[in-house]
Amino acid sequence: MQDRHLYEYAIIRVVPRVEREEFLNVGIVLFCKREKFLGVLYKLKEEKLKILCEELDFDQLGMNLQSFEKICQGDKDGGPIAQMDIPSRFRWLTAVRSSVLQTSRPHPGLCEDLDATLKRLFKELVL
Q1: pTM score, two decimals?
Q2: Which segments of 23-106 are extended strands (E)?
Q3: Tally of structural domains, the chain
């Protein structure tokens, strides 16, 4: 039997009009401190998002999601946040904010395979 890993995940949401509090799930960010794992998967659903807000800037939204990816990977192009330790990066990504791109509160779980869990959560909660 494999070791089970304690992880946390948050759902990445697009909130086109913050004042209306309507959102669409577009991604998952998953973190495991013990395994030093921080991963993200996302997919922009432009047709669905246009229903909520026709004037949404999809180029900017795509760049913001790419920055999530760079921060998770610790990419040097990800700015100073990407150079922080993994737990700090996850806490920064999941901090409460009032912007078009937000995350849910983090949720805990246990799993044997972090990559498979990230993909499963993405499929269940986003796709």
Answers
A1: 0.93
A2: 24-32, 37-42, 101-103
A3: 1
